Amino acid sequence: DDDIFSSAFCENSEKLINVHLFALAAKYYSLSNLGVCTPLEDVLEALKGDSEGATGIKPDEFMNSKKSHEVQVMSELVDNIANYCGIKQVIDIGSGKGYLSSFLSMQYNLQVYGIDSSSSNTNGAHERNRKLKKHWRAYQSRGTENLKSQGLEKANDRPVESEIKCKTINEELLNNANSLQNQDQVIIHDLVPSCGFTEMATPATNTETEANLVTGTQSHETKLSEAVLDILNVLPADAVEDFSSSYCNCGELCEEEKVHRKMTSLKAKARKSSESNLYFPLTSCITAETELGDIITDLEDCMMVGLHTCGDLAANTLRIFTAKPEIKAVCSVGCCYHLLSEQFENQEECHDQVWGFPMCQYLKDKGWCCGRNARMSACLALERVAVGQMLPTESLFYRAVLQVIIEEIYGVTKSDRHVGKTFSKSSSFIDYVRRSLKKLELDDSKLRDSCIMDYYEKYKHRMNELEAFNMLKVVLAPCIEVLILLDRLCYLKEQENIAWSGLVKLFDPVKSPRCYAVIALKNQSC
């Protein structure tokens, strides 16, 4: 309990005296131990889904393994939520290069609007779709071969079931020849499941069934070739309608801009009649006060998603969700806790500002503050360190010594500028210091190379201490993340229009350290 864990620190000096007890306390207060998370399998079961990934497009051919893992897991959950709520429109906040957005649209036939503040990310979305086009024919060929081989195998083992499934495929193709959505489902999936199919087929011999299957497969191939042509016409750059604008929507849009955006949207809809499963990247800055209807002119009942929304964007996503009646559900995975704005971090009163932390009234009443150092620690990845992916000790040492230099030589204790990823570009400690000083706009001519190396030699023997200190920060990281995530969950629990909300562990934390999603569904009457 708390009394036992408190003995990890000296009562008088408040210094850490029992590292083992400290580690046990940190584990005790981690999300995995507190029992506040809802298992992903339980959520999928409640939504009448399952935990097995959908067949079809394999994104690992045009995404790295981390992104592929995240997109496949999250997109399946989003699709289940959308089906449960009876919606087809998804708004992806902080969509970046559109990995999640495009996968949701192509794999699950959802209409996705991806909103990102960076126009360069919109260009990245175009490039990603170019790669999709490159691989698309291979996917179709692979899907056709799977259809043939799996169908023939099942025809030998279960002739009645094979005939039913083959009949289902042919009926759907004939009845929905002009529907891109249904063509896409037939192409992507190895076999269309016969859900809701109640008519029993007449038993047939293996020979008859195989003949019917071959005939059905040939018919499928004919439709397949037509569908591929249609889809290839949709997939390239013009499948990604770029509604980007140099205007940053951080306040109210002018009437002229609203009219322009509405006309653009209407023209796009008129130009494409079968665009229900397309991805539309939009360039806009999202705040808690953003009116989505000004950005998306055909806004309807929808859900909001965010895969690693940075800093305050995760908090603002939840605020928009609770405020807008059209948004029926939210699934948000945040990141970059160090970039959160904190209401009680500075003593300056700023009544009009909307803060990233705290969100819930409970912590606001207590005036709770984490501080930047704690939030930086929350970004560390304990699970990765546990499997041997050690911290970058040398770069952390460089940064620590640099801090001493700028305080002692330049008298600077705080700066709005950041060093960034200077270490990877530096050939030596001297080079690192000079590059960093230039980024901080400090005059490096004050320092001789010998002076820089004197600082390095002075603190070099303490590198092990720094490594130990950072390991303690890593151990504590999950506890700080718990505080931030529970604050967001409590905020949702305080809202009257929420039917259910919870924290769900979506990803393997070794592959993707920020692995927890905040999920909520509104009352059906809202």
Automatic annotation (TrEMBL):
Family matches, as Pfam families? Methyltransf_32
Q: Where is the Methyltransferase domain?
A: 66-343
What is this protein called in UniProt? Answer: MET25 protein
Q: Which gene encodes it?
A: Mettl25
